[in-house]
Amino acid sequence: NNYNKQGAHHTYNHRENNYNKQIQTDSKDGVDMIVEMLANVNLDTDINLLRRGGVVLVVGNRGTVEINPRGLMGREADIRGVALSLSSPEERKEIDDAIQDGLQRGALKPVIGEERKLADVSQAHVDILTTRRLGKMVLVPWE
Questions:
Q1: Alpha carbon 124 to its chain's center
Q2: I need a surface site. Which of 23, 24, 42, 135 has the fewest CB within 10 A?
Q3: Which of the pair, 132 or 58, is modelled with greater confidence?
């Protein structure tokens, strides 16, 4: 799995049956952090997978969600919304510097799934929305 090669201890796919049972097997006390890309579908399940003091970082959502707050209370856990676009210039520079440092040291190794010509941006956008891909699609502005 590419994420494990990148340094993740464990990764799980929400689309696999019983992924949450596998998480519970691998981490009896729960997980420290979940980066959630579809909170309206997964958030209530995520809460119940956290350890005490754990956090769900919501980076994506496509609708409303109903949760049972008891799961948070019993774990003293947090849900935090994350939007890079709200970062201050100083925070953005700190983030950019950390990314550049990680790339230069080889600690960060982006997975590029495919490259597309900038002229094909319309079809690339359709493909991103309608197909599943491993890695990021990169637009190349030169021929």
A1: 21
A2: 135
A3: 58
